[in-house]
């Protein structure tokens, strides 16, 4: 079997804070700076009868852009760049070493 949503975990630590991504529970995205922030990254929540959250907002924006004949904020090139980055992250994890990340939009 391949990876599932609960297999996605990533911790980014910087000099001004950190971000933890763990899709195995509802507090999937946690940002720590001088205060904590927990983003609702999923579609499951409804406000006034409409789905909200990362998934719903992204899909709604894309659909509304296409209907209006406008370019979405993110396109296939961005999706390809993210896929390349994820593959580099996987390569680094498998090797247990840092790997070189070339231009993702090449």
Explain what you see.
There is one protein chain. The model has no long low-confidence stretch (mean pLDDT 80). The protein is built from 2 helices and 6 strands; from the N terminus they run ββββββαα. It has 106 residues and is α+β, with helices and mostly antiparallel strands. It is globular, with a radius of gyration of 17 Å. The chain has a 4-stranded antiparallel β-sheet with strand order 1-2-3-4, with no helix packed on it. It has a two-stranded antiparallel sheet with strand order 5-6. The protein starts with 8 loop residues before the first strand and ends in an 11-residue tail after the last helix.
Question: What are the SSEs and their pairings?
Answer:
Layout: E1 9-14, E2 17-22, E3 29-32, E4 36-39, E5 45-47, E6 50-52, H1 54-67, H2 76-95
Antiparallel strand pairs: 1-2, 2-3, 3-4, 5-6
In a nutshell, what does this entry contain?
Helix content is 32%, strand content 25%. With 106 residues, the chain is of the alpha+beta class. Strand 2 and strand 3 form a beta hairpin.
